[in-house]
Write a structure and sequence with these properties.
Helix 1 packs parallel to helix 8 and helix 5 runs parallel beside helix 7. Among the domains are: about 240 residues, Aldolase class I (TIM Barrel, Alpha-Beta Barrel), CATH 3.20.20; about 90 residues, Thrombin, subunit H (Beta Barrel), CATH 2.40.10.170; about 100 residues, no CATH class. With about 650 residues, the chain is of the alpha/beta class.
């Protein structure tokens, strides 16, 4: 990828979803292989990946495979074999977290740094570039100035800077969350997160007073950077990543199309920039991020810290407000829509908040429009008696619109590459040459004696029209030129064969013009890692990873949390999100407030969910929150996955 190219990077749970992402405008797709991808139930066979690669490369779209879990010593050989299989089927890059992979016999394939490598500083970004990573995805928590500071130290001809622009947000710095392993033995760093962040918690202060009751205080809204794309480009981002390897087909179609349209606008304004793949996508629908599951949207920290980044009331999809309840009966309800043009359908999903601010879902079996515009009678799937606090005046949201769902179930996009077509006369017949927008050409030759047409006046137009019928090929005609000194009649079957051969020749030329991105070589001698001591937070889980850091000047290396050597209380999650700030209890917020100044301290808080207790500690200088806890005995009593110990001299761990 070149520094002037913009890459829209879409997720795929399956190869079918990957193909639709490409049709809907993705420049690259990331997908899990058969194992070692950080989404345990989004694996794909080598054959499926091969099929996707073949499809993608026709548009010069790239395929990246996730190999981004931390690996045990006994898994490195399987990971190495898998990497070679992926290379052999034409995959363009592997997304990795475990630095042990850089120490083994990997294929000459590009390596990209996973979000799990937790890139927050210019020093870390520069180190990963010098270690041989060709694309690095920055932490989602960064602000525009922080992103620009990283761009300023990176050689953008060697390394592409990537950033998440849409989708679910992990509340923790990626790779810095161990709650799931501590509580259940399921490691987020090994692709099996139990999502403790989406649970409701009671928040208590040091005196045991309840500060918040049954709130999802670690649950973030969903990321949406639609309004910040130009600013992100200016700050140095060149790959724009949509989160969602668990997401369904409709989500990937809609969100990819949404960003494709936004980027096409930007590319029209900036001729010095170009898309990283070929072809234009057109859609049968108007993309709308609000139509998919979302927890409402935030642009997180990109424009600085904001108060409303959390989805504290519910981790579910609250949908869009569309109506108010006007009547409740024993077997149905009546609603009045905010806009008389809104249509409801059988199967729509509605919801409302009860008096405790709990979101209650209400699926519609039957919807009937009444004579008064905007009034609808609805018969829910479940008995009316079960709907708590449903009464006149309650606001109703829609979180699933069946007509939208049906639109995206159908064929919803096409992607075509523009070609110039030229038919010319040669000594023994005709030559058709196709040239695509990126300069690839393909020609076919038809040896045929000249035949006069019946109607010389219409002959040219007929030839043009027949040649321009590119049907279900990748191509659409931009212009059809005839450089013929005389009018020709060509039998339709022969003209079709000529066009088919020229298209085939162009596809072959395009295929030959797709060059595999070379693996970046690490700087020699190895550059020093920014720190000389690594705690469990560095996720070093095998001997090769330990050797990697030792080679780069690290003197003390602790084993990953999953090695289960951290028996006491430690930071199980480090996050930029601050519960004190969100609940207006931040000492910085209190500064200057009369009667409050100096009385608010960032004392710890407690989170309680059933028997689970976690402590929140606040590190105010870097403005970070640590969720502190310890590993459960039940997890310890199950044998550790990989008992490893690298050094007796253990780094001191805690607030840092």
């Amino acid at each position: 990828m070149f520094a002037h190219q913009l890459e829209l990077l879409a997720p795929a749970r399956t190869s079918e979803i990957g193909m639709q992402a490409i049709l809907h405008g993705a420049d690259a797709v990331y997908i899990g292989g058969p194992s070692f991808g950080a989404r345990s139930s989004a694996d794909n066979s080598v054959q499926d990946i091969a099929r996707l690669v073949q499809y993608a490369h026709r548009f010069h779209t790239r395929i990246f495979v996730t190999l981004n879990t931390i690996l045990r010593d006994d898994e490195l050989e399987s990971a190495r074999k898998l990497a070679w299989q992926m290379y052999d089927v034409g995959v363009d890059a592997l997304i990795v977290q475990d630095m042990g992979l850089l120490q083994i016999d990997m294929p000459p394939i590009q390596l990209h740094a996973s979000t799990q490598t937790d890139i927050r500083t210019p020093e870390k970004a520069k180190f990963l570039q010098d270690a041989g990573l060709s694309q690095i995805v920055l932490a989602r928590e960064l602000t525009l100035p922080q992103i620009a500071a990283i761009r300023d130290v990176i050689d953008t001809d060697r390394t592409v800077i990537e950033f998440f622009v849409h989708g679910a947000l992990c509340v923790a710095y990626s790779g810095q969350c161990f709650i799931s392993h501590a509580h259940t033995g399921r490691s987020a760093n090994r692709g099996d997160c139990s999502q403790a962040c989406r649970l409701p918690y009671e928040v208590k202060d040091t005196q045991g007073r309840i500060v918040a009751h049954e709130k999802h205080v670690l649950s973030m809204k969903d990321n949406n950077q639609s309004d910040n794309l130009r600013a992100l480009i200016d700050a140095g981002i060149r790959s724009f990543k949509i989160e969602g390897r668990y997401k369904d087909m409709a989500y990937v179609k809609n969100i990819t199309a949404h960003y494709r349209k936004l980027f096409d606008e930007i590319l029209n304004e900036h001729p010095e920039l170009s898309a990283a793949s070929h072809g234009r996508s057109t859609f049968t629908f108007e993309p709308d991020p609000n139509q998919n599951f979302n927890r409402e949207f935030t642009d997180y920290f990109v424009q600085g810290r904001k108060e409303d980044i959390g989805a504290f009331d519910t981790p579910k999809n609250p949908g869009q407000p569309i109506a108010w309840v006007s009547k409740v009966s024993s077997d149905h309800l009546e609603i009045t829509t905010d806009d008389a043009g809104i249509e409801l359908h059988n199967g729509d999903g509605l919801c409302y908040y009860d008096l405790q601010k709990e979101l209650i879902g209400l699926q519609i079996n039957r919807a009937e429009a009444q004579t008064t515009p905007g009034v609808w009678k609805l018969w829910p799937k479940d008995p009316m008696v079960g709907f708590k606090d449903l009464r006149k005046g309650v606001q109703v949201n829609r979180n699933r619109d069946m007509s939208w769902v049906r639109t995206l179930d159908k064929h919803s996009a096409d992607r075509r590459i523009g070609v110039w077509m030229q038919l010319s006369e040669i000594p023994d017949g005709l030559m058709l040459t196709l040239t695509d927008e990126t300069g690839h050409t393909g020609s076919a030759h038809l040896p045929i004696p000249w035949q006069a047409p019946k109607d010389a006046g219409q002959a040219q137009d007929k030839l043009r029209a027949a040649l321009g019928k590119l049907g279900d090929t990748l191509f659409e005609p931009l212009d059809v030129q005839l450089t013929l000194p005389r009018s020709w009649f060509v039998p339709p079957s022969q003209l079709n064969a000529l066009r088919r051969d020229a298209v085939q020749a162009l596809e072959t030329a395009r295929n030959q013009g797709l060059h595999r991105l070379p693996r970046a070589l690490p700087v020699q001698p190895p550059v020093a890692y920014p720190e000389d001591t690594l705690s469990y937070l560095a996720n070093v889980f095998n001997q090769k990873a330990r050797d990697f850091y030792a080679q780069h000047g690290v003197r003390v290396i602790d084993a990953a949390y999953e090695a289960q050597e951290e028996l006491g209380e430690v930071s199980l999650m480090i996050t930029k999100h601050c519960v004190r700030f969100s609940l207006s209890l931040c000492p910085k917020q209190a500064k200057g407030v009369t009667g409050v100044q100096g009385t608010v301290k960032a004392e710890p808080l407690q989170l309680i969910n059933g028997k689970e207790k976690l402590t929140l500690r606040f590190d105010c200088k870097p403005c970070e929150m640590h969720v502190v806890g310890k590993i459960k005995n039940s997890v310890l009593s199950a044998a550790p996955e990989s008992p490893i110990q690298f050094y007796k001299t253990r780094p001191l761990v805690g607030m840092h």
